[in-house]
Amino acid sequence: xxxxxxxxxxxxxxxxxxxxxxxxxxxxxxxxxxxxxxxxxxxxxxxxxxxxxxxxxxxxxxxxxxxxxxxxxxxxxxxxxxxxxxxxxxxxxxxxxxxxxxxxxxxxxxxxxxxxxxxxxxxxxxxxxxxxxxxxxxxxxxxxxxxxxxxxxxxxxxxxxxxxxxxxxxxxxxxxxxxxxxxxxxxxxxxxxxxxxxxxxxxxxxxxxxxxxxxxxxxxxxxxxxxxxxxxxxxxxxxxxxxxxxxxxxxxxxxxxxxxxxxxxxxxxxxxxxxxxxxxxxxxxxxxxxxxxxxxxxxxxxxxxxxxxxxxxxxxxxxxxxxxxxxxxxxxxxxxxxxxxxxxxxxxxxxxxxxxxxxxxxxxxxxxxxxxxxxxxxxxxxxxxxxxxxxxxxxxxxxxxxxxxxxxxxxxxxxxxxxxxxxxxxxxxxxxxxxxxxxxxxxxxxxxxxxxxxxxxxxxxxxxxxxxxxxxxxxxxxxxxxxxxxxxxxxxxxxxxxxxxxxxxxxxxxxxxxxxxx
Length: 518
What we know:
There is one protein chain. This protein is an all-alpha fold. Among the domains are: about 1-135, no CATH class; about 325-385. The chain has 26 helices and two strands. It has a two-stranded antiparallel ribbon with strand order 1-2. The longest helix has 17 residues, at about 500-515.
């Protein structure tokens, strides 16, 4: 077939090539994306005469291509660059053969040049691959996350112009105090309540306390005047304290109040102005615990130990449990009199019967001192074991008390074990501790350790007392170290002490023996 007339009809040579075979449709279209407008395109219409036979059905009606076997391939050809079945196309042709039966190839040089630019990117490949693999992975966390409700707007909560209430504001700050009412400022102010006591004290004897209290009555609250009553008691004005209590009884907004009642009866019991009722059992059952404790404290402070003992005995019979500090105070006062030892033992046994004993370090040490003074060393050991089992750490005062108790009981080795325990815990010794420890080493006739602790005491800055000097002189005399005795005697004279007659006689005898030996 002669196609030379088509070749002469073109003004410019075509770079594209067409190859015609028996398998090509009767109409082929090659779509050019990157078209150069400066070149001349020829519209070629292919007639039915250029093919020999009809293509088979599987080419005319092709099935959908299968999915690629390798889903994770690196590159994909974007759709739209292939041959589309249009009735016409604009191509650049170049005829290689005149034989229609011969295979003729067509290609697009520009398509081949830009083929590398149409490759898929890595993120696009990852998205396409996930479509074949399954569900797109979600972010970790709750999938069905509920969206929180929007915050309420201020204009929908409260009307405009009103200030927001502030919570947890310190009432002691100056800004808040300036806004408080007068009642809230003074009803528990110690300075104001003490000032009331001083005003009552300055009243003439013929005037009643109501002349002072009526001015401030509306600003007071329950419990306010308890501090004023206590201050009147410290001033030695129990009558004014009783008048204040009687005035409070008439004020409906201030009475009944157990705090001012307890303060008043304590002052009256301390000044011996309070008398116990005849039916003490009934009084104990009806009275408040705070009132009972206040009366007992007043009796103990006033020296009425018999009345305090009666009240505690009535409370024990009525199964009223008072605070352990009341028992400790009475025990300390009774312990000053050796004749009251039976009462002390009874109080100790009553404290030991309690399920939960609540004693402070100071109270525990005070009880130990009383027991050691009265010779109840077993109570000291029991109390010391309870204190350690309670998880408390003994102090140097407590250790010194127990060491003195064991020293008094002639348990020198047990006392020495506590000294080593104090050294192991790096417990700093005070003056009483040095005195007791040096006495212990003198009793053990351990001169080197006694001298060591005597030197440590002076290095620490403590000045030895006369009994410590006397013990050291006795140790040196027994060991025959007369030169050391003279040195200590000089220190005694420099410290301002005078040797007693017994010690002077021993020293004179030693001097005479020394002179006679010479």
